[in-house]
Amino acid sequence: MVNKELMKGSTAMLILTLLGRKEMYGYEMTKEIESRSSGLFTFKEGTLYPILHALEAEKIVESYWSEQEGRKRKYYRITDNGRKQLQTKQQEWNMFRTAVDRVIGEGQA
């Protein structure tokens, strides 16, 4: 299990990355994150939806209802502004990751 404090700064980036690939509904996002992280990252509804609502309020994502196979679901998609935010967050993450690796001396004794 990963420390919640470590996860805090990256959850929005993970969600935006998924939505940058395709439009998804909430449960689909939680399963995709869990699958891609080999079960290390798990989001409960109480974690995911407040983040999605905040991103929606900031006009970074937008939602719409769609009915498929008789099932009505709320889908989310990234906006143009969201794509810009994602690019910025990915650049920040790469700088952060590189700096941490340098400090902890990845692969060095």
TrEMBL record:
Transmembrane regions: none
All copies of domain Transcription regulator PadR N-terminal, residue ranges: 15-87
InterPro entries in the cross-refs: Tscrpt_reg_PadR_N, WH-like_DNA-bd_sf, WH_DNA-bd_sf
SUPFAM superfamilies linked: Winged helix' DNA-binding domain
Domain of life according to the entry: Bacteria
Pfam families: PadR
PANTHER family assigned to the protein according to its UniProt record, in alphabetical order: TRANSCRIPTIONAL REGULATOR YQJI (PTHR43252:SF7)
Protein name as catalogued: PadR family transcriptional regulator
